Every structure is written in C-alpha cells, then in structure tokens.
Amino acid sequence: KQEVTQIPAALSVPEGENLVLNCSFTDSAIYNLQWFRQDPGKGLTSLLLIQSSQREQTSGRLNASLDKSSGRSTLYIAASQPGDSATYLCAVPPSGTYKYIFGTGTRLKVLA
Amino acid sequence: GAVVSQHPSRVICKSGTSVKIECRSLDFQATTMFWYRQFPKKSLMLMATSNEGSKATYEQGVEKDKFLINHASLTLSTLTVTSAHPEDSSFYICSAPPGLPDLNTEAFFGQGTRLTVV
Predict the structure, then answer these.
(1) pLDDT band (50, 70, 90) for residue A41
(2) Do B103 and A103 touch (CB under 8 A)?
(3) Under an 8 A CB cutoff, do A103 and B49 touch?
C-alpha cells in the first residue's frame, strides 16, 4: 500500500531563504508526482507535475525533482517570500489510476 | 485548461440535516470523479470513486449510507452528506481525470467545500 510522507511537517524561515521540502513514497510504481499548494481554508493549487520518466521540473522560483528508485521527491523554493506561506502537499497516483495518495504536508511560514 | 467547479464553497448546516455538494467538469467529460476529505490540519484522504452510470466505489471505512454519491451525467457528480453531525465537519474536495485516457497528465481539482455542522 502506497504511503507518502513529507518532512518537515512545519517550517518557519526568514524571507529570502532558499528552502527544500521533502516527499517520500513507499511504492515506486507511479506514473507521476505532483506538488500542490494549499492556503488556509482553500482548495489546491497545482504547482508542478513530474512525469515518472522525468527527473525534474521548474516553474519560476520552484524546482521539483524526482528519484523514483529511492522513492523521493524534493521541492526547492528559491528566495522565499511571505506570499509563499502555505501548506505544501505532494501526491502520487498509483499506476493505472488517478486516485491520488497525498502526503502529510509541510506547513511553511515565511517571515517578513 | 480543464476546469472542475465545486459548489458550494462553504456551507453551514444544522445537525440532522443533509447537505449536497456538486462537482462539475466544465469543458470536458468525466466518467470518473473522486471525492476526498480533509480533517483539520490533516492531509486529504480519498473517500470514494464516483462512476458515471454505475455505483460509487467507497474506500475502506467510509460509510456508504452517510456519504451518498451520484454521478448523474458525464459532467456532474454529487456528494450528499446525510443526517450530518458535527463530526462530519470537514473540507471536501473533488477531482476529475482529464477527458482522454492519458495517465501522464494531471487530474483537476475543484475548489473544495468547507462543511460546518452545528
């Protein structure tokens, strides 16, 4: 059974810092891995989607990497800003399905 | 891009009443939709798979009679929380895979519904 874990659970950093969020999954049979952002009381905003055949994806100050063999993904946020404060979730759909298994989330707070 | 619309975004209801949440795919057909639930400060957990033209498939531990799912058409799935109780208060969100059978693209998520039962 696929399990997705995110470390750290919470993170507080000063503005301008570069930071790394970690996501690990137990079953490497995935089609892709997706990173989401969730603001308090809000829905999900898709940040990056990495196909199983890819190693990384970049969007602006965000860079996500994927190592299927070790069951790990990282989300790198460069030059963090207070507006980046949110909960970040990674999710994987098991092979052959769109049933996403979500990670436990990392609550990020960027201090001005 | 494809859009999934969920309504309402917030609802407050009294204990014992039923609440219906709608999930619509706006510019594509979705034979399958998924319903998730998020407890406070927890991650999202899959509740059930909604199948157009057939019964929903529920995940282990989810009460079928409590959470009624109806996939009325290729663009609409509804989740009805029946005889709601305060412990049903939660954030509910739906998703739909893209119209084509391409597993290398992302599923699309609704905006979510915050249910508060008082």
Answers:
(1) confident
(2) no
(3) no
